[in-house]
Specification:
Layout: H1 17-23, E1 33-40, E2 47-48, E3 56-58, H2 60-72, E4 77-83, H3 95-108, E5 113-118, H4 141-157, E6 162-165, H5 172-182, E7 189-196, H6 203-209, H7 232-245, E8 249-253, H8 259-268, E9 274-278, H9 280-291, H10 297-310, E10 315-318, H11 324-327
Parallel strand pairs: 1-3, 1-4, 1-10, 4-5, 5-6, 6-7, 7-8, 8-9, 9-10
Antiparallel strand pairs: 2-3
Helix pairs in contact: 3-4, 4-5
Length: 330
């Protein structure tokens, strides 16, 4: 016998692509991916986001043109971030974002699933995700939740298929669900960023969304509302609570650095679909390595996405969704 392993060989099932395809347990499909967009009020021309290949701060016009091109490339699900020109400290208006949602829906109708991020960090003068106390040392929970529910309702009325609160205030899922129910919007999905960690991997995003904490206020970061990286139990509690309050979809964010959390939460709460957000810093990290010739970028992205599906995600928010048809075959 040439091979004394014989009966015990595991390499028999790895020997060529036909066999590998037949035995593969997890695969990623373009249909699982959600493409994020940034639309910015008052911009003259669109601007590239540093480090984020293919990602722009769009004007309302360039946004529609970009979505058009992306739909040609197979994108059917999107997540919108609206960035208003005027920053305030309270009594926010989300009309700019609502108008963009309505325009997208007018143009693409049911061919495109449109989710929208609900948060106040792009709306505030200080970049915090809500209304600050007079001392500037704390984000007021209930005043913020009231604003979030108002914004989410406006977005749903403008035609969003899904509202996705990313602020991490207590009770916002219940408040948004109640606001939607009150307006008979019982088909709008509610996707909670339920396990959103206090991460450094959001760096490139904050430049895109004008949302870095800034200014002369006591609060300098988001540690008092986002989850501590060392506290997966908090992520479980937050996800259980948000499921209970009426979230349809739960999420882990960021992705790769929290793959253990995704794997354990998706098993702990198997009755809800799980989303994962491959955040700006993760996407940029692979792109920067690829640019330096250190990795095959497309194949590395596809490998990350496979890890998400293996860990239990049924959908992936990624800045690379528009390239997926190419990258998944790289
Ligand atoms: C808003 C929000 C953030 C992201 C999504 N929604 C940033 C933050 O919390 O600071 C991050 C997305 C990314 O990095 O790609 N609160």
């Amino acid at each position: 016998m040439k091979n004394d392993i014989g009966r015990l060989s595991l390499r028999r099932l790895r020997q060529n692509s036909h066999v590998r395809e037949l035995v593969r347990e997890h695969r990623v499909c373009v249909e699982q991916l959600i493409q994020p967009y940034f639309v910015v009020d008052g911009l003259k021309d669109r601007e590239a986001v540093p480090g984020m290949t293919g990602t722009y701060r769009d004007t309302p016009d360039t946004l529609l043109a970009q979505i058009d091109r992306d739909m040609e490339a197979g994108v059917r699900k999107m997540l919108l971030f609206g960035v208003p020109a005027e920053k305030k400290d309270r009594a926010f208006t989300s009309d700019f974002t609502a108008r963009q949602l309505a325009a997208i829906k007018r143009r693409f109708g049911a061919d495109l699933f449109v989710a929208v991020d609900v948060c106040l960090c792009s709306y505030t003068t200080h970049g915090q995700c809500g209304i600050l106390t007079a001392e500037g040392d704390h984000v007021e929970n209930s005043a913020t939740v009231t604003e979030l529910a108002k914004a989410a309702l406006g977005f749903a009325q403008a035609g969003a298929d899904c509202v996705a609160p990313s602020d991490m205030m207590d009770g916002r899922i219940a408040a948004i669900r109640a606001a939607l129910d009150g307006a008979d919007l019982d088909r709008t999905l509610l996707m909670s960023y339920s396990a959103k960690f206090h991460s450094k991997f959001y760096g490139p995003f904050r430049a895109a969304a004008d949302s870095a904490p800034k200014g002369a206020v006591a609060l300098k970061d988001r540690a008092t509302y986002q989850i501590d990286p060392g506290s997966p139990r908090d992520a479980l509690a937050s996800s259980l609570r948000d499921a209970e309050e009426g979230a349809d979809i739960l999420m882990v964010k960021p992705g790769l650095p929290y793959l253990d959390v995704l794997a354990s939460l998706s098993r702990a709460i198997p009755t809800k679909p799980w989303a994962v957000y491959e955040v700006s810093g993760e996407y940029a990290a692979l792109e920067l390595m690829a640019e330096k010739g250190l990795v095959n970028g497309p194949a590395a992205h596809a490998e990350s996405w496979t890890a998400f599906v293996r860990a239990g995600a049924s959908m992936i928010i990624t800045y690379g969704a528009r390239y997926a048809q190419k990258w998944l075959n790289a």
